[in-house]
Design brief:
single chain; TIM Barrel; 13 helices
């Protein structure tokens, strides 16, 4: 593993995760066959990445199946990587208790389903993929804590929860001596900053919240490739992702990205590398989840590590001015 990679503790836990990690959202099963997935994951691993992110709902469970096959094919030592999944939406269609819920029955069965698809004995991290207003938080906290106690997962957390929901879950766990939520997985990038920088601000010191942030490139917008519309080989052109088109071609956002271009050129990096490095420069970010559809893209993304030392206070101020 390369010495370039940095590792950070996941919140107040003792677990160390690589500052850049690799996720399967959109790409696995949809854009990548097994061989390309193997190449991407091995390239990330060789670059020092030790965290691989997944979710039950990605490609309706097929993303987990594919990642499981890759782990089996590559034969890495299980103690050398961290793998996650997320539960909420379900993959069993319109079955009561099996979709859009965080009730105990669903969570217990979702956990077993993920382990079966990934062909693993345990997952390192599991997330409540969205909040569930219809299930008491107490029920969810007890179920997630029991899963950790069973050894099927090592740590649990949340994704896109509000600060008061995270705090409520943490306080319930504290009161009943249960396993507390350790991390949150919010969207964070130069154009989406609210949760990480403001809403969660007090949680970092007060409960030791870690963050595994997603979409550091705002679904590709921050690469600058949507300047002249939607390229045919881009995520915005994929079937089922039409909802992205309006976001990635928004004129005001595209204009902000273009203001970043001269800064990237001065630093000798791409817009993508600048954007990923900017996310990693936030000390409250435990790891930045990157995605890729080919091994060369993994290497390009991970070269953001070389940009990190160049982000001086002056450069950061210029970036802020460009996107404000």
């Amino acid at each position: 593993m390369t010495s370039r990679m940095q590792y950070r503790r996941l919140g107040r836990s003792g677990l160390q995760v690589s500052i850049l990690s690799f996720g399967s959202w959109v790409t696995f099963d949809t854009q990548l066959g097994d061989q390309m997935a193997i190449e991407c994951m091995q390239t990330a691993y060789d670059a020092g990445c030790n965290f691989f992110d997944n979710a039950e709902a990605y490609a309706g469970g097929k993303s987990e199946e594919q990642m499981g096959r890759v782990f089996k094919e590559l034969g890495w030592a299980r103690n050398s990587y961290v793998v996650s999944s997320k539960f909420f939406w379900g993959i069993n269609g319109r079955v009561p208790n099996m979709q859009n819920t965080l009730n105990r029955k669903y969570l217990m069965q979702a956990m077993d389903g993920s382990l079966e698809r990934m062909q693993l004995d345990f997952l390192d991290l599991i997330f409540c993929h969205r909040p569930d207003p219809k299930t008491p938080i107490e029920e969810t906290v007890w179920a997630m804590s029991d899963i950790v106690s069973s050894g099927k997962a090592l740590y649990w957390g949340t994704s896109e929860w509000a600060a008061d929901e995270i705090r409520a879950a943490w306080e319930i766990a504290e009161r009943h001596h249960l396993h507390k939520p350790v991390m949150e997985q919010p969207q964070y990038n130069l154009l989406t900053r609210g949760k990480v920088e403001w809403e969660y601000a007090r949680l970092y010191d007060e409960i030791g919240l870690g963050t595994t942030i997603w979409s550091p490139l705002a679904s590709g917008l921050l690469t600058g490739k949507y300047k002249d519309g939607v390229p045919q080989d881009s995520r915005g052109a994929l079937a089922g992702y039409e909802w992205l088109t309006g976001r990635v071609t928004d004129a005001a956002s595209v204009a902000k990205v273009e203001l970043l271009r001269p800064i990237a050129e001065e630093l000798g990096c791409t817009l993508a590398q600048l954007s990923i490095a900017w996310c990693a420069a936030n000390p409250h970010v435990s790891t930045v989840i990157t995605g890729a559809s080919r091994a060369s893209q993994v290497l390009e993304n991970f070269a953001a590590l070389d940009v990190l030392p160049l982000l001086t206070p002056d450069v950061m101020a210029r970036i802020d001015t460009a996107v404000s």
